[in-house]
Amino acid sequence: MTQAQAIQKSGGSWRIHDTKLLVQWPNAIPMHVGEDSRKKFGHILKLLRDRGFKVTADPEIKARSLLISPSYRYGRRGDLQLNTHVYPTGAEFHFYQDTNRTHARSGRYDFDQRQKMPYLTGKLFDLVIRDIERYLAGEGFVKHTKIETANPDPLAYFNAHWSMSSDPTRGPLRFKRGADGWPADSEINCWDRKDADGIVLNHGDTRHYRNHKGQLFKGRVYGGINGRWLYVYGPGARDFTHVSNWELFTAAPGAPRRDFGKAKRDARLDKDLQAALKDKDYGKAAKLIDVIKRLAERENSVAAAQVQQAA
């Protein structure tokens, strides 16, 4: 069972982003916070109090609005502070400290907040997160972890990166899917899905590709949304990239593993293109993009002719 399937089955999930713990309630009602959700939120606040936190109404929110104040709480134990609130579809728990910070106002607005925490404060944060995660797992929630690589599961990577950040279950549901789980033809036919040889691309097809250094790769293609294809060329965690349909082709037998002339030319064109974009000379940039595309099409047509001759 994939992570997305597990989340859909359970209906509830949580994820961690730096020092924020974000919870998504199961069977949430978008218009208001359900009774069961409030009970779970209250239980997490009790866990915090059991760990020595003093949890009260958030003073900033209370001064601003008594109406929404019951959904917001502020907590503190030593240097570790907490701002939390519950909303119809979930809850957010944001931990921070002001002892070691770079932001003028508060460590709440710093980058890399866990990294900036003093040793003992950080260990307390880790302990509290462990308690909350243990409770959520016991209640049937599933932890949503960020998928960083297309290996070994390109579909899981695709789904994760096309999901809404607030709802990790939306990835698999965002497009109409075929039996293999990838976007159906009706979803990708609105873009040009032919490679440089004029052959229609399908999920899992094998194609060649040259990068900006002229290196030749052989891999499989997936996705096709917006005319961009997930290209997996090896088993390693970084052995994948994203390419346009016109960059893909079938190389002739014996094609050089590296084309140094192409690398030098492409580097110059890319440099000129970046300079045009920086100067906001969009007319020149459009011409350069057209040149790059036509050169790629010509090279791939030559490669296709060589393949036919070899056959």
Key features?
single chain; 311 residues; alpha+beta; 7-stranded mixed β-sheet; 4-stranded antiparallel β-sheet
Word description of this protein:
- With 311 residues, the protein is an alpha+beta fold.
- The protein has nine helices and eleven strands.
- The radius of gyration is 26 Å and the shape is elongated.
- The two termini are 44 Å apart.
Query: Which value, in Å, is the CA radius of gyration?
Result: 26 Å
Number of strands: 11
Shape: elongated
Task: Give the termini separation.
Answer: 44 Å
Biggest sheet descriptor: 7 strands, mixed
Strand order of the largest sheet: 3-4-5-6-2-1-7
Q: Pairing-aware structural class of the strands and helices?
A: alpha+beta
Poorly predicted runs are 6-10
Overall pLDDT level: 88
Helix tally equals 9
- What is the chain-wise order of helices and strands? HEEHEHEEEHHEHHEEEEHH
Secondary-structure blueprint:
Layout (H helix, E strand, L loop, with lengths): L2 H8 L2 E5 L2 E5 L10 H16 L3 E4 L1 H6 L7 E6 L2 E8 L2 E7 L16 H4 L2 H20 L3 E2 L10 H8 L23 H4 L17 E5 L5 E8 L4 E5 L7 E5 L15 H19 L3 H29 L1
Parallel strand pairs: 1-7
Antiparallel strand pairs: 1-2, 2-6, 3-4, 4-5, 5-6, 8-9, 9-10, 10-11
Helix pairs in contact: 8-9
What can be said about this structure in brief?
With 311 residues, this protein is of the alpha+beta class. The chain has helices at 3-10, 35-50, 59-64, 113-116, 119-138, 154-161, 185-188, 260-278, 282-310, and strands spanning 13-17, 20-24, 54-57, 72-77, 80-87, 90-96, 142-143, 206-210, 216-223, 228-232, 240-244. The longest helix is centred in the C-terminal third of the chain and has 29 residues, at 282-310.
